[in-house]
Amino acid sequence: MARGFNKPRNQFITLRQGYLEALFTYNRFKGMGTLNDVDVTERYKNVNENFDVYTHASYILEVITRALEDDIAEPGYYRLLKKAFKLLDEGNSTYGVTSLVLVKMLPAYGGQLNLGSCAVCGRNDYKKYSHYSFKYHNVLCCDCLTDDTLERAIPVSNRVLYFALYLQLVRLDDINSVKLSNETGRQLLKFIEVIYDEYSGVYFRSKKMIDPQ
Ligand SMILES: [Zn+2]
């Protein structure tokens, strides 16, 4: 509880302006703690001043917080959130960073993304990847397309499939930047959203501010 939070002039006023990372200090006293102090540790200036970046930050925050369960700490989610906000703030591809978060959070929503090798021939020549199949729940290569294998498969650009695979495999600590053209980024996010629709059925409200068409 933050005393005086709604008064116009109080020491917590910064909390009402956009996204910040802050260190909260509580006094725990009979049940509900009382908020004593707030130290802002990150201001995310670019995120808060640029509406387009802000909408992606909102989407990312919703995807991560919706996966949290009461009373279970998820330090991995927190690290992902911090990394994503940092990358957004540093001016990286918004679609790329949002896609990174969606790919990393997919297992928490019961989804799967199998891009390691073609479902039919088993080869892992990603330059030949051309479709994603919801019959095999796996990627398909261009050598293995028949009426039968194409049933419940969607065409996805080779570039998008490659980036999705990269985001899935890369360790957070190894990412220093996410650079993608806007067009590839949009297609990548759209593809991953199709995967979410297929497996999770969850609807993220903040997604509607972003149009990856
Ligand atoms: Zn194949």
UniProtKB/TrEMBL annotation:
Transmembrane segments: none annotated. InterPro entries: ARFGAP/RecO, RecO, RecO_C. GO terms for cellular component: bacterial nucleoid. One of its GO terms (biological process) is DNA recombination. Pfam families: RecO_C. This is DNA repair protein RecO. The gene is recO.
